[in-house]
UniProtKB/TrEMBL annotation:
Name listed for the protein in its UniProt record: DUF4194 domain-containing protein
Domain of life: Bacteria
InterPro entries from the UniProt entry: JetB
Pfam families to which the protein is assigned, alphabetical: DUF4194
Length: 186
């Protein structure tokens, strides 16, 4: 296989597997940029678009609106995972301008924000376990990256997925949840 073909294949396969980060996969990123036109044409044939944010340093596949069967699966998120995504998006927006480089958050900061916002927990150990589960899911989704010091890097790709529409829908669901909790006297 020629070098150009192997670079194309490497980049295309990485996109199929998920989000490609320049910082994590610099060689794949280079091949992606070198072959971007061919890769876009390749995926366009099956109804997928390559979204590449050079400034943010990430790329992924997304499916446009069409009558084709869905290749990119949408998954339902638990309340805690949704809450964590909204929390992280807010932190990213707040810290992005004031921070040079990566936006990092500690587990303690995440836990503190959860505990401040969510109703009181009778079982703190259970609440911490649920928060850990939400963090693990968000890491698995590619929006957080565990760091060696125990902190978490908030990945810039979060901005593409948790946008104003997503946040508005989440706020609406939060209002419904709060109303339900008030009606139940909780």
């Amino acid at each position: 296989m020629e070098e150009k073909e192997s670079g194309f294949s490497l980049a295309a396969i990485a996109l199929i597997k998920g989000i490609v980060y320049r910082s994590d996969q610099p060689i794949v990123w280079e091949h992606l940029n070198q072959n971007i036109s061919a890769i876009e044409s390749y995926f366009e044939k099956i109804g997928l678009e390559v979204y590449l944010d050079d400034e943010g340093g990430y790329a992924y596949l997304k499916q446009g609106e069409s009558d084709l069967p869905k290749l990119v699966r949408r998954q339902s998120l638990s309340f805690k995972v949704s809450f964590l995504l909204a929390l992280l998006r807010g932190e990213f927006a707040r810290r992005e301008d004031e921070t040079e480089g990566d936006v990092v958050i500690t587990k303690e900061e995440i836990v503190d924000r959860f505990m401040l916002t969510l109703p009181e927990h009778n079982d703190e150990a259970k609440a911490l376990k649920e928060i850990d589960g939400a963090i693990s899911k968000v890491v698995e989704m590619g929006f957080l990256k565990r760091l060696s010091d125990g902190g978490y890097k908030i990945q810039p790709v979060l901005k593409s997925f948790v946008d104003a529409n997503w946040l508005a829908e989440f706020d609406k669901k939060m209002a419904e949840y709060e109303k339900l909790m008030q009606e139940k006297g909780l």
